[in-house]
Amino acid sequence: MTPLQVLFICTGNICRSPSAEGVLRHRLAEAGLADRITIDSAATHDYHTGEPPNPRAVRCCAKRGYDLTGLRARRLTREDFENFDVISVMDRGHMEILKSRCPSGEEHRLKLFLDHAEPPLQGQDVPDPYYGGPEDYEAMLDLIEEGMTGLLDHLRSRL
User: Fold this and answer.
1) How many angstroms separate the CA atoms of 34 and 143, rounded?
2) Structural domains of the chain, with CATH
3) Residues facing residue 142 across a β-bridge
4) Per-residue pLDDT tens for 13-23?
5) DSSP states of 59-111
């Protein structure tokens, strides 16, 4: 059986999307599903290609038990639209960028990350913490954890 494939997208692939990748990897391991779902993350822009996640994101995630070790930023490719079953974007700006790049017929793969959360978070963005302080990274991770519960339920339903 081919694993289900999930891709997280943010602007530079150094804060939000690698954090979401780390959270989902952790939750899949806890649920015994790590071998059934493949995860990756990518950027809409090539600002940080090849770089590890931002140290503030790494510290924030590590405090909660999420490991971002080994992750490196990469830019979204055209092939990603065909290779990933679920492409989860962190904000509506990313959604617009992906819609403009998405091959015809593949739009069904795109989903705003917090659309997996409970109301009132549905339709909301995960704000970019890059220019903020530690509290902004904590708030980012709170939202990612909140949305991840619903995403994990959605993924289980597709297995």
Assistant:
1) 22
2) 4-158 (3.40.50.2300)
3) none
4) 999 999 999 99
5) HHHHHTT---TT----B--TTHHHH-SEEEESSHHHHHHHHHHSPTT-GGGEE
> What's the pTM?
0.97
Residues labelled catalytic: 10, 16, 128
**Rounded to 5, what percent of the chain is helix, strand, coil?**
45, 15, 40
158: three-class secondary structure by DSSP: helix
- 96-141 per-position pLDDT tens digit: 999 999 999 999 999 999 999 999 999 999 999 999 999 999 999 9
